Input
Amino acid sequence: MRRPDESMSLLRNLTEGALEPEYRTTRAPRRTGWVTLVSIALVVSLLTYALIQTFATRDVQAAERAQLLEQIAEARERQSLVAQDLAALESEVGDLTSRFLPDEEGRRALAEAELLSGAVPVEGPGVVVVADDAPDATDSQGHVLDSDLNYLVNGLFEAGAEAVAVNGHRVTTLTPIRSAGAAITVDYVSLSAPYVVEAIGDPDLLPARFANTRAAAWWQYLRLNYGLTLELTPSDDDLTLPADPGMGLRYAEGG
Output
């Protein structure tokens, strides 16, 4: 009697004899111990190298930072010394001016010119204006721009201010107010909001006069449309504004 699967014998033989006898008896090669050790050593070496490079980079960055801080300290020290020399020279110029301008009218005219030009500090009553970005500012439309600050300063002068300073920096005819990236520079010094504008003048008249200027209308537009804030209040005490360091004596000729 034939087997039921006898007809499948040829297929079974092909399937069972697909591999050569050598393949049936050969054992899979095993990884030797020294190969494993080499692999582990290689991984450890790579990790060690990565750690060394990381710490070396940190050391270099720390050294560079320390060097920069040292340079900044030296620059500030030099700036302080130069400021002292400048103050001494300005005092000397004042003494020479008094000596060679004995005429009272001439000294008065010089003092007035120095006051108006911003060459000397000034003290007196006035108003304080605080200009700030919108509380929820997300783009340039919600921030105070250099043009907005220019409008404000010019409006205060138009209203009768005798002297103006922004964040402690005196504004004169030679003081640039410009944009520098995200900051505003006043006399090439970067400032950030809020901007405190001090104006010396009659505190009873300045607010009303300023309200009638184009600057006030512009800032009202900014407040209504972009949320910028502007607060003008009379100063309780006298304001003291510094001199513009760029307005010192540059040229003199003896007679």
